[in-house]
Each structure stands twice: as C-alpha cells, then as structure tokens.
Amino acid sequence: MPNHFVARAAQSAHRRLSRVALLALCVTAPLASLTAPAWAVPLQARPAMEQALKQPPQPVKVIEPHLSTRTQNTEVTYLGWPAPLVLDTVLGADWRKPGVDVEFRALDGYVSRIPADKFSQHRAYLVVQRVGHPDFSVNNLAQNEKNVPLGPYYLVWDNIRSPELLADGGNGWPYQVAEIKISEARSQALLPAHLPAGLRAVATEAQTHCLSCHQVNGFGGDKWPGNLAQQARALGEPAFLRWVLAPDSVKPGTTMPPVAKLWPDAEREALASRLLDYLRAVGAQAN
Ligand code: HEC
After folding, report:
1. pTM to 2 decimals?
2. I need a surface site. Which of 56, 81, 106, 148 has the fewest CB within 10 A?
3. Given the DSSP bridges, would you call strands 101-106 and 111-115 parallel, antiparallel or unpaired?
C-alpha cells in the first residue's frame, strides 16, 4: 500500500512540473496553436474554457451509468461541450491520427485512455455541471461510493443515441478529469511481437475493463501498483476468476469493481478467462 502513495506523490510532483512547463510555453504561444504536446495538458477552469471554445456549455442528457443497474436506467442532464471541440482546442489536430489514444488524467491519478476513433463513432461531452442537483457529484453504485465529486471535468457519452454503450457501464466515463494527453504507448506495451495473434483483440478488452486502474508492461493507470500481467500469473486461475468476477466476495468493501457487471454471467466468465489468457501471454517476456 505505501507504494501506492509513493507513486501518487511522484505523479503529482510530475504534474506540477508539467504545469510549469506549460505556463512557460503559454507566454509565447496561445494554447490552440500547440501541436501534439508530449506532456499532459491541464484543462483550464470553466470560465477560461468557455472563452477558449467561444460558446457556453450546453445541456446533454445521458443515462448515468454510475446510477443505473441491470434493471433500471437513470437519466441525468449535464452541462458541457462536445469532447472533439475541447480536444481540437487543447491538443491540436494530432489526436485525430490513427492508433492514438486520448488520456484523461484525474486528480487522484486515475488514468482513462480512450481510443481516439471512439470519438468519431459516438458523441462524447466534457461536462462541468449537473443540472437540477445541489452539486456536481454522483453516487457510484458499483464502487460503494456516495456523492463522488465529478469536477473539474467529467467525460460523458450520449448513450441514449448510442445504446450499445450501455453494456460498458461506467467504463470510459472518467471523472475529476484535470489533464488530457495524446498517447501512442498502447501498442508498444499491449501488443508485443510475441503475443499470439488470437489474443490481440483481447488487448482492447483489457484496456476497457482493467487498465484505467492497473498497468501492463508500464501501460495503464496507477490506481493499483504493479504489473497486472505478473499479478494475474501469480494468482492462478481459480483465484483470478473469483477475484475478477466478484471482488467484493473475496474482500468485502474493496473498491475494485466486478468486471462488466451488466453483462450476462456466461459472457462475464468467458471475458474473465480471455483476460487471464491474454495477461499470461502478454507478460511472458516482460521482467
Ligand atoms: C476502478 C479501478 C479498478 C479496475 C477497473 C480494475 N481493478 Fe483490479 N484492483 C483495483 C484495486 C483498488 C485493487 C486492490 C484491491 C484491494 O486490495 O482492495 C485491485 C486488485 C487487483 C488484483 C490483485 C492484485 C495484487 O495485488 O495481487 C488483480 C489480479 C486485479 N485487480 C485484476 C483486475 C483485472 C483483471 C481487471 C479488469 C477485469 C481489474 N482488476 C480492474 C482496482 C481496479
């Protein structure tokens, strides 16, 4: 556990450095003209963002995955801007290159990497306010958390227009987003040459379901330390499957959510097995 805090402290030190670097650059260049910054770019506060985007935030109604269950959908209206508009303005056009991920980095170190082409398939918004609610927060039923603050920015998807997104629950809905970044590290870490061809597609599933919190070969989030490929191998199959399918039954109150909790059980079990096969194979040559 101490490792976790060390990692966080190191990261926030890094983040402070990034801000200094950015400030230095801002003196000479307006933000919108920067191309493909290699570091995370802090998102400006709402009034500055409104000015940079030249429009006020608009209402967006979504089915809020953190408040919805298998049997009941809860709609929430937020105020925000189309994500591609924000990305174009903050990151320049390079986030639209093929094979690129956009990283959303939260205040607490949570990193959500979203393949850039998902933004052309579905409508996403960066929102700053929850309409008709005392504050900008939501309960997170899956993680047993109440009144989770969502600001400064929260990425939401129009899953009313794209109902196929409903099955993924809160995956790809990072909150407390403070910085964004273009990343090309995904394929290097997740698709090493020795990976069997049949497991390549599972890399995307691992990314969707696990790597916002965990890392594999150095790629992923840092909510829990260590290389998930090694940890999965060390656990062995029965313990891995039990943990991933029902973490709360192994360790009551854990903040690790059950994998794909909205899917039918047979599909969840198949997914967990595929993830184990992938994690065992992808780390085979890592040390
Ligand atoms: C929302 C963040 C989050 C996501 C998503 C997540 N985990 Fe975890 N995971 C955690 C946390 C936090 C712990 C430590 C839990 C504890 O001890 O209470 C953990 C622990 C683990 C462990 C034990 C690691 C060790 O120390 O040996 C394994 C294995 C694991 N997760 C696998 C997975 C897999 C596979 C996925 C994807 C299906 C996944 N996790 C998705 C947060 C997450």
Report:
1. 0.57
2. 56
3. antiparallel
CA distances from 133 to 78, 124, 140, 151, 163 (A): 10, 21, 15, 14, 24
Q: Give residue-wise pLDDT tens across range 198-234.
A: 999 999 899 899 999 999 998 888 899 999 999 999 9
Q: What's the CA-to-centroid distance between 62 and ligand 1, angstroms? A: 28
Q: Which residues contact 28 (CB under 8 A, 6 or more apart)?
A: none
Enumerate residues lining ligand 1, CB below 6 A. Answer: 209-210, 212-214, 223-224, 226, 228, 231-232, 235, 243-244, 251, 254-257, 259, 275
Report the C-alpha gap between 218 and 226 in whole angstroms: 9
How many CA atoms lie within 13 Å of 165's alpha carbon, on the beta-carbon side?
21
Letter for the amino acid at 152? Answer: P
Q: Residue 203 — φ and ψ, nearest 5°? A: -55, -40
Radius of gyration for the alpha carbons in the chain, expressed in angstroms and rounded: 19
- Burial bucket for residue 160 (CB in 10 Å: 0-12, 13-18, 19+): middle
